[in-house]
Amino acid sequence: MTDPVDVVIIGGGPGGYTAAQRCAENGSSTVLVESGVLGGSCLNVGCIPSKAVIHVADRFGELGAGGELAAVGICATATLDLPAAMRWKDDVVGRLRNGVHHLLTRAGVRIINGRAQVVDGKTISVSTEAGEEMVVARNVVLATGSRPMELSHLPFGGKVISSTEALSLQQVPGRLAVVGAGYIGLELGTAFAKLGSNVTIVEATDQILPMYDAALVRPVAARLRALGIDVRLGTTASGAADRGLTIGVGDDTETIDADVVLVTVGRVPVLDGFGVESLDLTMAGRFLAIDEHCRTSMRGVYAIGDITGEPMLAHRAMAQAMVVADVLAGRPRVWDYRAVPAVCFTDPELLAVGMSPDEAKAAGVSTVVALQPFSANGRALTLARDDGFVRVVADSTSGRVLGIHAVGVGVSELAGAAATAIEMEMSVADLDLTMHAHPTLSESIHGAAAAAVDRLRKNA
Ligand code: FAD
């Protein structure tokens, strides 16, 4: 048994590696235990590889007969080498993973490659290739992330795959059925449609992207139709058959052809199989309950990332990691973010930061809501995509920005500006008085804010 370290972190995803780097930089002796590869779900089987595959699909799709390039006078015939595209994607992932390793070692983090087992709130046993190692720590940070949710009637295996396998396919499936129209299913379903698959998306609720309001989702639904993707709403998948996938609405069932069935119905927090149950920590539903310092119900045990709740997003995990590291260093720091930005890299992209009009109404806040369509934005038109809009939700008394939402080409890059406006408690007048570069998509934030100011004046 070695001397106790200041902190041991279980899990080397965005939550865990960010916490480890910051803890070590803050002067804490830090051990990071990772059973797989550094970077976790996000870097290896999530955010990064999915965006790489989407990039390939977008470029390939643009070149196709009905693609955007034909509309601007460029005619080309493209062929796809999917294994080469996947090698490029793996190279991107590898470069980023090496970067994480470099940052951690430079900061002085001790990385143990092995599976952690919680012995008690201070002791972790790690099975490594070299044998069992005990780590005793003053503080434990749990960052074990999430895994794809499996349906009992559609277990993973054979032609039923999760997003992990989808991101390494070496052949474009002729017919792809996607179960679940959340952001992961839509991002991957759209990408494979552009790569040439005949795609059907099956969704149990009556809307794609059920987390977002109908107005925001409409341009994405229109684009799915334009891409020839068959979207079946209010429909459940009940089992994979030889020929395909059995789906149904109520008692009416049918079997649709599918060579591959991609199940994307959510993610499950990893809170089993490594002894954490023995700590008997307080739960919040299926997640670990934490306070504003990311403390669990046991002193000295912290939790961050996907195991702590929705939205399960990498930047939330990283922001929690910074909170924990600073708390452990004795700095006054709490989780007090006003908004967690969310981006769906669908086509068009969708951005949501802060309150939607419905959420504001439910919270009893009186609002003005103003919108600027991208059909009035010069940059969107020069990109040959004028679908979508930016919407600003503001408090009707103070003019404070409560939410910024957008759907349109490239709106993911507006996430920083939108989050800054809400975090800095800007008013729509502040946004209106800020000069926005021309021609950029960000001018539509300005346009929507100016319309909100106008409405506030009229209401005054
Ligand atoms: P994870 O990244 O899941 O990392 C947990 C790590 O813990 C893993 O490496 C695992 O091996 C390790 N571990 C688990 N148990 C043990 C143990 N007992 N011992 C040692 N190690 C252990 N988020 C975004 O913000 N933007 C996106 O665009 C986005 N796209 C996504 C696309 C897909 C297809 C998927 C699947 C996810 C996407 N996400 C995205 C979500 C994002 O990947 C997660 O929110 C993020 O990875 C959570 O980070 P984490 O640190 O909590 O856990």
Could you explain how this protein is built, in words?
The protein folds into 3 domains: 5-148 and 268-328, FAD/NAD(P)-binding domain, CATH 3.50.50.60; 160-265, FAD/NAD(P)-binding domain (3-Layer(bba) Sandwich); 342-459, Enolase-like, domain 1 (2-Layer Sandwich), CATH 3.30.390.30. Strand 10, helix 8 (214-226) and strand 11 form a beta-alpha-beta unit. The protein is globular and about 65 Å long. The protein starts with a strand and ends with a helix. The strands form 6 sheets. Strands 1, 2, 3, 4, 5, 6 and 19 form a 7-stranded mixed beta sheet that branches. The model has no long low-confidence stretch (mean pLDDT 96). It is built from 14 helices and 24 strands. Helices cover 33% and strands 26% of the residues. The chain is an alpha/beta fold and 460 residues long. Flavin-adenine dinucleotide binds next to helix 1, strand 2, helix 2, helix 3 and strand 4.
| Secondary-structure arrangement, i.e. CATH architecture of the largest domain | 3-Layer(bba) Sandwich
The CA-CA distance between the termini, in Å, is: 70 Å
Helical segment count: 14
Number of strand segments: 24
Average residue-wise pLDDT:
96
Inertia-based shape: globular
Count of domain modules: 3
CATH class of the largest domain: Alpha Beta
Q: Biggest sheet, in brief?
A: 7 strands, mixed
Percentage of helical residues?
Answer: 25-40%
What's the Cα radius of gyration? Answer: 24 Å
CATH superfamily of the largest domain: FAD/NAD(P)-binding domain
What structural class results from the helix and strand content? alpha/beta
Low-confidence segments, given as residue ranges, are none
Ligands, deduplicated = flavin-adenine dinucleotide
Tell me the fraction of residues in β-strands, as a range: 25-35%
CATH topology of the largest domain: FAD/NAD(P)-binding domain
